[in-house]
């Protein structure tokens, strides 16, 4: 089953220097397990491709059902150094939420909640 990340989570992002910070928060407590298992630093880095030159770190926040990603070397040097049109990380959460995940419905019965509306 293909699922856009925005159906499972919402997000916020910002920046500090040349690092983007993206918080991905499960829309329902039942979706946190999916995010934790499927949304890896490798997948996030691949999604952004050449925009992220450095490593991607992930921190788990199970008490609030969220993941926090740090994307290093992702802003062309940062707001005061970059030649990019938008050298800040404010839009990165929206870009990440467009990621399409391929999920096994038998592994995640909670995906039925997406169709319960």
Automatic annotation (TrEMBL):
Please, which domain of life does this record's source organism belong to?
A: Bacteria
Pfam hit, one? AtuA_ferredoxin
Q: What is this protein called?
A: AtuA-like ferredoxin-fold domain-containing protein
Q: Where is the AtuA-like ferredoxin-fold domain?
A: 4-101
